[in-house]
Amino acid sequence: MLTSLANALPHFRHTNSGQFFLMAGPCVIEGEDMALRIAEKVKAMTDKLQIPYIFKGSYRKANRSRLDSFTGIGDETALRILQKVGREIGVPTVTDIHESGEAAFAAEYVDVLQIPAFLCRQTDLLIAAAKTGKVVNVKKGQFLNGEAMQWAVDKIQQSGNPHVILTDRGNSFGYSDLVVDFRNLPAMRSFGVPVVMDVTHSLQRPNQSSGVTGGQPALIETIAKAAIAVGADGLFIETHPTPATALSDGANMLPLDQLQRLLEKLTRIRDAVRDSGDINPQGLDA
């Protein structure tokens, strides 16, 4: 299933290793030095483990609880940093877009355009992203089941773009919590597109009284292991050298120095599931 992504993405390595792929980086681009440092360290880890890697970083955070929350360092400045990461580190890059007018602009700098979960039904946004020709990663809305994402896939593919990824990030559970329903992963895989588990956002606790989203980072390993066990093609993990000082989503990030140990465990699970013959419950290519 990674063959089409490999053809569409520059610098997408290790796609024949049989491993899951990884989308990882900071929540938001905070500066050039940090972005390059994170990308370089994660690339070294993934090269060692032969994990295909896409660097993740939002150029702007449009969905924040409070007006005084950090949203970014400037759109073009952040996008140029993402472009530099791609060129200097030699990895594909992904960033969020929020309105249809942003698609063509962001596509000049990155390899994958990501549709935030709250916007996954926005037809104009999906079509605009599709028409750039870039890979489009659509996050499943917290208010939808996996089966409903068929229509997002259709909107993109029927707009002439075959390169779609679907990402689960949990479902709303009451007013201030999320729960992961792992039935969504095989449901979305049945559409014939790569499916990713957004491990860190699935552990958010939104709508806190402080106006700052909480999280349960202690469960990152649990969610990641379960996702690989049920056949996720990729994982999405936000990571930062010091999550406590991160300018966005620090409450549910994985410390960068804990990432390699987690990836080592996950590659062993992937190997075991693949060797058992159960990695493709829908009969799809790995």
UniProtKB/TrEMBL annotation:
One molecular function GO term is: 3-deoxy-8-phosphooctulonate synthase activity
DAHP synthetase I/KDSA domain: from which residue to which, for each copy? 18-270
Supply the alphabetized keyword list. Cytoplasm, Transferase
Question: Gene3D superfamilies in the record, alphabetically?
Answer: Aldolase class I
Q: What is its main location?
A: cytoplasm
Q: In which pathway does it act?
A: Bacterial outer membrane biogenesis; lipopolysaccharide biosynthesis; Carbohydrate biosynthesis; 3-deoxy-D-manno-octulosonate biosynthesis; 3-deoxy-D-manno-octulosonate from D-ribulose 5-phosphate: step 2/3
UniProt keyword annotation of Transferase present: yes
EC number assigned by the record? 2.5.1.55
Q: Check the record and name the Pfam families matching this protein.
A: DAHP_synth_1
Name the top EC class: transferase
Q: Where in the cell is it found?
A: Cytoplasm
Q: Which reaction does it catalyse?
A: D-arabinose 5-phosphate + phosphoenolpyruvate + H2O = 3-deoxy-alpha-D-manno-2-octulosonate-8-phosphate + phosphate
**What InterPro entries does the annotation carry?**
Aldolase_TIM, DAHP1/KDSA, KDO8P_synthase
In its keyword annotation, does this UniProt entry include NADP? Answer: no
- Family statement: Belongs to the KdsA family.
The name on file for this protein is 3-deoxy-8-phosphooctulonate synthase
Origin organism is: Hymenobacter aranciens
